[in-house]
Amino acid sequence: MAIAATTLNAALETSGLSFLVGAIALQLPIGWFGDKWDRVRLVVCLAAAAAFLTVMGTKGGFP
Question: pTM of the full predicted structure?
Answer without folding.
Answer: 0.58
